[in-house]
Specification:
This protein folds into three domains: about 5-185, Rossmann fold (3-Layer(aba) Sandwich), CATH 3.40.50.180; about 215-255, no CATH class; about 265-340. The model is unreliable at about 330-340 (pLDDT under 50). The strands form three sheets. A seven-stranded parallel sheet has the order 3-4-2-1-7-8-9, sandwiched between helices. With about 350 residues, it is of the alpha/beta class. The longest helix is centred in the last third of the chain and has 36 residues, at about 260-295. The protein has helices at about 15-25, 50-55, 105-120, 135-145, 160-170, 175-185, 205-215, 220-225, 260-295, 300-325, and strands at about 5-10, 35-40, 60-65, 75-80, 85-90, 90-95, 120-125, 145-150, 175, 225-235, 240-245, 250-255, 260.
C-alpha cells in the first residue's frame, strides 16, 4: 500500500484496551492514514494479546511496531512494551530511550516525533488514562499545525489524561468515544481542506527534542538550548533539570533525555517524599522501642532519662503519623494521641 498522507497518533493508559477496541472498530480499511498507538503496558508483557484483540475488531491490519518498518496507510502500529515508538522519514523507529513522565513507551515521545515528521498532517488523540502522558504531546502536535482530539472526560473510564490535556492545551475536538471514528476519518480525508491557521514551520526546539529521542541520550549543550537550568533533580537519574521555555505546557528535562510535565514531576517528587517519610517513621519506631528497653533495664536517674526520651519520641511519632495519615480532609483515618502510642 501507499505511504500515508496523515498520521493518527493515539495515547491511552488505564481503561485503554476496551476504549481502543471501540475506536478502531469505527475505522475503515480505506483510511488514508497510518494509526500509531501508545498503550501503557507492563514491561514484561508481549503486547501480542492486545494486537490480536484489536485485529479482531477492526478492518485495519494491526501489528506490533518493528524498528525501521515502512509506514503504510490503513494500518495500525502498536508500541511494543518498554520501547518508545517514534516516526522518521516515513518509517517507524523503536527505541529504548529514557522514560518520559515515567513511561516507556510514552505518548509524548510518539506525538512529538510524528508532529516533527508530518507537521499539520497529524491528528493527536488522548483517550482514557491516569495522570498526564499525552498532554505535552498534544501541545507538540498543535505547535506543528496538527489537530488535537480528546475523549470527553465524562465518557472516559479514567478521565485523568483527557482532563490534563484540556487544562493545558487548546484542544480542537472533545468527543465521546462512539463519535470519534467518524471525526478521525473526516480529519484525514483528502476532501477536508487544511485549516488557515496551520503552521508551515516546525519549531526548532521540537526538532532538537525529536533528534535527542532518536539518539536515545542527549547532552548538556542540547539541554541548554532548550531551556534554563533550575535547582531541581531528575527523579529517574538524579541529574540536573532544565525548565523548557517553549510551548504552553510547563516541562522539564535532564540532559540524558528524561522528560516531565510539571504535573508529572510534582507527582514523582510526592511519591519520593512519601517513601522517605515512611522510612523515617519506621526508624523512629525502632528508636522508641530501643529506648523503652534501655529504660526498663536501667535504674535510677539514668532510667528516668530514657523514659523521658521515650515520651519525647512518642510525640514526634504522633506528629509524623498525623501528617501522613490525616493530611487530607475526608481520609477517615482516626487521629492518634501520643498517650495512645504503646
Amino acid at each position: 500500500m501507499a505511504g500515508p498522507t496523515h498520521l493518527i497518533v493515539i495515547g491511552t493508559s488505564a481503561g485503554g484496551m476496551p476504549a481502543l477496541t471501540r475506536l478502531v472498530a469505527q475505522l475503515p480499511a480505506s483510511l488514508p492514514a497510518a494509526v500509531l498507538v501508545v498503550q501503557h503496558l507492563s514491561p514484561d508483557s508481549t503486547g501480542e494479546p492486545l494486537v490480536r484483540r484489536l485485529a479482531e475488531n477492526t478492518a485495519l491490519p494491526c501489528q506490533l511496531a518493528v524498528n525501521n518498518l515502512r509506514l503504510e496507510a490503513g494500518r495500525l502500529y502498536l508500541a511494543p512494551p518498554d520501547r518508545h515508538l517514534l516516526v522518521k522519514d516515513g518509517h517507524v523507529l523503536v527505541t529504548k530511550g529514557p522514560r518520559e513522565n515515567g513511561y516507556r513507551p510514552a505518548a509524548d515521545a510518539l506525538f512529538r516525533s510524528a508532529a516533527v515528521a508530518y507537521d499539520s498532517n497529524v491528528v493527536g488523540v488522548v483517550l482514557t488514562g491516569m495522570l498526564h502522558d499525552g498532554t505535552a504531546g498534544l501541545d507538540f502536535v498543535k505547535r506543528c499545525g496538527g489537530t488535537a482530539v480528546v475523549q470527553d472526560p465524562h465518557d472516559a473510564e479514567f478521565p485523568s489524561m483527557p482532563e490534563s490535556a484540556l487544562r493545558n492545551v487548546a484542544i480542537d475536538y472533545v468527543v465521546p468515544l462512539d463519535e470519534m471514528g467518524k471525526l478521525l476519518e473526516k480529519l484525514v480525508s483528502p476532501a477536508t481542506p487544511p485549516s488557515p491557521t496551520k503552521m508551515a514551520a516546525i519549531p526548532a526546539d521540537l526538532k532538537l527534542e525529536a533528534a535527542i529521542a532518536e539518539r536515545v541520550v542527549g547532552t548538556t549543550e542540547q539541554a541548554m538550548q532548550l531551556g534554563h537550568q533550575v535547582p531541581l533533580t531528575c527523579p529517574d537519574c538524579g541529574g540536573s533539570l532544565w525548565e523548557i521555555n517553549q510551548g504552553s505546557v510547563l516541562r522539564y528535562r535532564c540532559h540524558t533525555g528524561h522528560a516531565y510535565t510539571a504535573d508529572a514531576l510534582a507527582e514523582s517528587s510526592q511519591h519520593a517524599l512519601e517513601e522517605t517519610l515512611w522510612v523515617a517513621l519506621r526508624m523512629m519506631e525502632e528508636r522508641k522501642n530501643l529506648l523503652n528497653s534501655m529504660a526498663s533495664h536501667g535504674e535510677g536517674h539514668w532510667s528516668v532519662q530514657q523514659a523521658e526520651r521515650v515520651e519525647e519520641m512518642k510525640r514526634h511519632i504522633n506528629r509524623l503519623r498525623e501528617f501522613m495519615l490525616n493530611g487530607s480532609e475526608g481520609t477517615g483515618i482516626k487521629k492518634v494521641d501520643a498517650e495512645e502510642i504503646p
